Fold this protein.
Amino acid sequence: MTKDKAHISVQDLNVHIGGNHILKDLNIDIPNKSVTSIIGPSGCGKTTLLKTFNRLHDTAADVKVTGKVLVDGEDIYDPNTEITHIRKKMGLLSQRPYPLPMSIYDNVAYGPRIHGTRKRQDLDIIVEKQLKATALWNEVKDRLHSSATRLSIGQQQRLCLARGLAVGPEIILGDESTSALDPVSTSIIEDLFVKLKQDYSIVLVTHILRQAARVSDYIIFVYEGRIVEYGKTEQVLRDPREELTKEYVKGYIV
Amino acid sequence: MRRRNLEELFFKFLMVLATLVVGGSFFLIVGTIFYKGAPYMTFDMLTKTPGGGFYIGKEGGILNAIIGSMYVAGGATILGLIISIPVAIYLNMYMDGKKFLSNTLRMVFDVLFGIPSIVYGAFGFLIMVYFGLRASLLGGIIAVTLLVIPILVRTLDEVIRTVPLELRDAALSLGSTRWETAKVVLRAIRPGIITAILISFGRAIGDVAAVLFTAGFSDNIPTSLHEPAATLPLAIFFQLGSPIEEVQGRGYASALILTIVVLIITILSELLVKKFYKHKS
Ligand SMILES: Nc1ncnc2c1ncn2[C@@H]1O[C@H](COP(=O)(O)OP(=O)(O)OP(=O)(O)O)[C@@H](O)[C@H]1O
Ligand SMILES: [Mg+2]
């Protein structure tokens, strides 16, 4: 797939949760191999939107999704689409790290294992590669088999990223992935995003406009369940077209 | 002002009194059993089965009942777990969007939880009659399993609900199927499962009504599921009913053994619960 071609394409998307209309008539094309940030006030539907991308609403009660979400041209809400296959294409990095209740090694090896990689040598290679990709290898290489919950929060978050990358996704979804982290860990993760966009399409939800400015190529501004503005980072932050966006990014000074 | 102070004093007095009554009766009960049973607590009690004439005060011990109780409580807990784990997983992870059904099921288990154990005994007995079984270890295990299933389901249900939804989302996002996600959840609640085992075992070993007609009684240690099995609560019952002082004393010694076993289990499970919830937060 070439750069700038839509990787995720959202068409007439509507989401209702328990009778409330949360996302309203969304249409977006999220480009390939770029970082796209979703910004907007609390409760506007950013998390809800992100979850529609890998169908995480499936497990929640009374959530109704209508419209289309195309990933690589395939409608993920089509009843014939195999959901595990869609989710495998996307790595999710949540707000706080949730390591699986197993060792550091097994966390990274978990995904490849369930998708059929069994050989020890193959797994060793994947684990080392992804822990290096997330700048964690040197910190943990001597205790790969100790419990993942004993790592610091910042290390856990990088482990979760490594775990997600290990299944070979094409897209990385991040929901305020640095909000629980200290400034040093935050900048490590931000640098990783910038580096990873060579190989992955990245969609980030963030509250920090400076973060959006630092890492993203495009910004989507959501307000009360609607997309108000969508454009290049520079343009949205410095020269917003809409009044609502202007109001929201007012506090941002480069 | 005066009246309010008096009121405060009066209710404080009542609360202290109530606490003393509760705490006092605990020590009174344990103390009495200890006082009456300790003199008869011999090594033989723990290591020998009843000899001829045991019930008129001659030699022997209650190893038959100790082992029988372990078999019944252990067997019922294992069987109960095999049934309860899938139920708890199904309730929590496969009934998304079927709130009404899952809540109804939870209520059913709450009702089952409240049913007196004699009813489980009677029901177990009916099942045995239907299958032509005689009072046996197997019969006892079946009746006690019915008794512990609601306890296990309730405990496991609560433990699973402490697992953050984000952990499930994390597993799903890696492309796990629901069953693979359930396995991750089960790993996360391992300490909770051990707690559930202890609670169930503690309840099972002390119950008399469920084994009354189902397990029977025997002076021998059962060597197969189809032989009758003695249990501690019934052993206590028979011995305390005897007019012979020696036998009565041994009844108290048996009660002491059972009490100690249950106390150890309760304390262990309390400690584990504490550790589990500390770990969570
Ligand atoms: N499970 C749910 N049940 C009911 N309402 C929900 C549920 N999940 C989300 N909502 C509602 O949907 C709206 C959007 O929520 P969402 O979590 O997507 O907001 P957000 O933009 O991510 O906010 P934040 O920045 O605070 O994370 C909110 O009004 C919220 O109350
Ligand atoms: Mg959110």
